[in-house]
Amino acid sequence: MKSKFVLIFLILICFFNLSLSFRFTVTADPRDEQEDWIFALQQIKEKIGGIGEFHVTAGDQDPEDERYADFVSVFGESAIWCPVWGNHDIQNETNIIWLREFNKKSPLVVNKGPEGSENSTFSWDVDPVHFVVLNEQYNGSLDHGIYRADIVDELYDWLVDDLEKNKNPSVIVFGHAPAYPQHRHLNDSLNNDIPKRDRFWKLMNQHVEIYFCGHTHWYSAIQVGNEIVGQEYTYQIDAGAARWSHNNNNISTFLNVFVNEEKSEIQVHVWQSKQVMGEFEVVERLDIPFLQITSTKTPAGGDKYFIFAIVLFVIFIAIFLIVNFIFNKIKGNNLKVTPNNEYEIENLIEQEDELL
Ligand SMILES: *[C@@H]1O[C@H](CO)[C@@H](O)[C@H](O)[C@H]1NC(C)=O
Ligand SMILES: *[C@@H]1O[C@H](CO)[C@@H](O)[C@H](O)[C@H]1NC(C)=O
Ligand SMILES: *[C@@H]1O[C@H](CO)[C@@H](O)[C@H](O)[C@H]1NC(C)=O
Ligand SMILES: *[C@@H]1O[C@H](CO)[C@@H](O)[C@H](O)[C@H]1NC(C)=O
Ligand SMILES: *[C@@H]1O[C@H](CO)[C@@H](O)[C@H](O)[C@H]1NC(C)=O
Known about the structure:
This protein is of the alpha/beta class. The protein contains 8 helices and 13 strands. This is Purple acid phosphatase.
């Protein structure tokens, strides 16, 4: 009898972990380098077994219809792709219309952006993280109003409101242009307008663990603070480009991002290939703790998980007793259960670490 209870707890712990830890992948700026893009996607499949829950491309994935067709050819129709709007995506009316239509059907467009950007700025939740996608080409009324990226008042106000409503302990934001560009586009990113950039980054430091972007074609990860002291600062992670050609440093990059609820941290594995059509390797791992600044956030989440755990526990006991009862009826007292909820994310992390 004792061993059966141990088994219940093991299955419970397994299930609990699975439901609260997950991963997703990020690329940026493939543009029309189809062969390079497909190669990077195939490497995602080969090296880490797929995209995780969803795949975000942080802008400049034009022509959109072709890049999506490539994505589907590697991962299938059911895989979730999240194309962020970048400066090149708004240069062609066909791409703008395609992106709007695509997002109308996207399961990630849960909370819609401000008027005029309701199909290009949005947010959604995968516990314990709140995800936000920003369209930085939005000018306050039109989704493709500005070529030079900006966080205009309308977008900023929407973001403030969205982050205030959020109850999850962690927040990740995606946009196309860096706030603090490294290597390239040094005067042609969100720092186009320093007061607006500073206002945006202050908000990031109040709520957000990571701001993922692209635009420069050059991977970089930096932690930038502001006047808020005594806390961790937001990371800006530029995903580089999923291509070698015309990307300035000839390095193709993708990111594998684990959300580890148990450790309250986000683990980013950086995969790169420096040789055209050469195999990708893990070159860096960043462990980014949840900021956990707002004191009201954590208890709210905590309560929710506690109730969730109790409900799960009761369900498991019930299922166990029913299954046990049926089994005993059929087979006598000879129950054998193999827990098949193997915690594959943990294995994957270990495999990637060995490669580092
Ligand atoms: C716009 O994009 C579409 C779809 O990729 C393409 O067929 C068309 O030639 C492009 N138009 C211009 C002016 O670049
Ligand atoms: C966004 O999508 C909705 C339908 O889901 C549509 O009514 C609206 O006009 C779209 N807005 C823009 C700016 O594309
Ligand atoms: C956005 O751009 C459109 C087209 O250029 C323009 O008509 C509109 O007034 C702009 N909106 C704002 C708020 O600047
Ligand atoms: C970009 O900005 C930096 C610092 O703000 C300045 O030193 C540099 O001259 C600028 N470069 C260009 C090309 O405008
Ligand atoms: C990238 O590759 C091109 C052509 O293959 C070469 O001319 C250039 O020097 C390379 N750039 C770097 C930064 O290695």
